[in-house]
Design goal:
Length: 224
């Protein structure tokens, strides 16, 4: 679907600006993710938290501007562009939600001032963090050129990340791993936020491989 948007709008200056602005928003999301992870998991210095909050406000402002400009664009041009416009609006909503969840991680860092160690869960948590970091990299590369092969790596990889987050949360709830209350609650919320960030990157990538009505769903296999 997003490839159609690029083909339809590639010669229109406003549309180029909208796509570029969306890409900048996703880059900001990625920086916020790295900063919030750093605050919670690597240091007990919360100095980056205010910057994360400021970035979240900029993302919200950018989303409103893109939605407004898409509406203006669709009113001015052919109705054939409506699906492409709706796709871009869907994408920027996912980008805004990623910003919200990275801000939620920053909130955890503020409330849990000491470095969050995952104990016996450390290996799986690090694996989840690394895979989501890679999802960001793949999405940033796939998005501006509608690269379906790269997008599919996120779409197929999301299932395992989602499963690992869910199983680890269930272990915490069942008390299968020893933590003090503060660490257990913080880790459970952190995993939930990581899962949602991954889900919104998945949604963005499904917009590259799917038609509009299947954004957010697995790619439908073609029958022979």
């Amino acid at each position: 679907m997003f490839k159609e948007l690029l083909n339809l709008w590639k010669k229109q200056d406003l549309s180029k600006q909208l796509i570029q602005k969306s890409l900048e928003t996703l880059r900001t999301d990625y920086k916020m993710f790295k900063d919030s992870y750093h605050c919670l998991r690597q240091c007990d210095d919360a100095s980056l938290i205010e910057e994360i909050y400021k970035s979240d406000k900029l993302i919200n402002k950018s989303e409103r501007a893109i939605r407004r400009n898409v509406l203006t664009h669709l009113l001015m041009f052919d109705k054939a562009e409506i699906p492409a416009g709706l796709t871009l609006v869907s994408i920027v909503i996912d980008m805004e939600r990623i910003g919200d969840y990275t801000k939620n991680i920053a909130d955890l860092a503020r409330l849990h001032p000491k470095i969050l160690h995952a104990g016996k869960c450390e290996e799986i948590i690090v694996s989840i963090e690394q895979r989501i970091d890679n999802f960001f990299r793949l999405t940033l590369e796939a998005f501006p050129v509608s690269n379906a092969a790269l997008a599919r790596k996120v779409v197929t990889g999301y299932r395992d990340v989602s499963r690992d987050c869910t199983l680890t949360i269930e272990s915490l709830i069942k008390g299968e791993v020893e933590f003090n209350v503060s660490d257990a609650v913080t880790l459970g919320l952190y995993l939930r936020f990581l899962k949602r960030i991954a889900a919104h990157l998945y949604n963005i990538c499904t917009s590259i491989v799917n038609p509009f009505h299947r954004i957010g769903f697995a790619e439908k296999k073609k029958k022979d």
